[in-house]
Automatic annotation (TrEMBL):
It comes from Elaeis guineensis var. tenera (Oil palm). Keywords: Cytoplasm, Iron, Metal-binding, Nucleus, Oxidoreductase. This is Protein DMR6-LIKE OXYGENASE 2. Its cofactor is L-ascorbate. Coiled coil: none annotated. Residues 205-308 form the Fe2OG dioxygenase domain. It is found in: Cytoplasm; Nucleus. GO terms for cellular component: cytoplasm; nucleus. Residues 1-20 are annotated as: Disordered. Belongs to the iron/ascorbate-dependent oxidoreductase family. The keyword tRNA-binding does not apply. The gene is LOC105058466. The keyword Nucleus applies.
Amino acid sequence: MAPPTLPHSSLIPSPPPNSVKELTDAASLRSVPPQYATRNPDNTIGIEPIIQEEIPTVDFSLLTEGTPEQRSQVVHHLGKACEEWGFFMVVNHGIPERLREAMLDSMKEFFDQMEEEKGEYAGKHVTDPIRYGTSFNLTVEDVRYWRDYLKVFVHPVFYSPAKPPSFREISKEYTACTRAMGMELLRGIWESLGLEENDMTKALDLHSCFHLLGGNIYPPCPQPELATGLPAHSDYGLLTILLQNGVNGLQVKHSGNWVRVEPLPNSFLVNIGDHMEIVSNGRYKSVLHRAEVNSQSTRMSITSAVAPSLDTIVEPASQLVSDEHPVMFRGMRFGEFLELQQANRLKEKSILDFIRLHAEW
């Protein structure tokens, strides 16, 4: 199978001389460089409160191995979590701890390499199958975010950096497991929407789904009140499955408030993406989320993003369109959406709004 390709119209420069990790490894760093000062701690106008709230939890074992009644209850709960939050925790998922820890360790080894070694993967285009960088998109950003990243295409064609040596084998097993979990969650979500699994698999070409493995590292920041890990944004795709190294820093937007997320032990965090909002014709909305930094510990997260195939034109499911709920989005090829989202500023749901036809429900 040939590797997936997209037009290379969006250039991205090599990482600057200092990635955030290289910057913080320097013992002399005592303050945030000006280009990373994204916030003014003295300006409290318009600052939204950050609260604690109970996050919906989905028992994956009951979805896949429960009785018909138990599965029905989980599907209902899953649909409610998508509709009210766009975000949930998954417990009893069956992905072994040794694999989760191995993936975290291998990703850490990648980021711990010298800049010259990682620089081999400094992406020139948003569609490079292996791309290392810092912030988000330095060609369009006025400021930088306190984050380095690695992005790897793992399906329908599998890629891996050559170093560390363990990365290929571990990431192949890990992404196969998270993709399988994602597909089971999608079956439950289609069911909650009254959609047929086979119809959705065919419509979105999920056998050739686009799957990206992402690694994010947020080193300790000397002035966390000034810097931002990542600003408020939604994800592309259908689902994003998140694993953390035990250092929290994720916040999600819910009912007008920012909620600080503290996941249960041995759980995954899952949020629905823009393409779930498109397919559901606005019923299930992608959730805004952001990453905060701290002064004490390095936070690392690993994302597993599951999306339609690159060549699929994604549009609302016809079963969810009616006189009461007209078509909310124009169809767009997923690969084109991906390129737009990755090549522009990371700003809330700006790319989804670009193809929106009607106001939200």
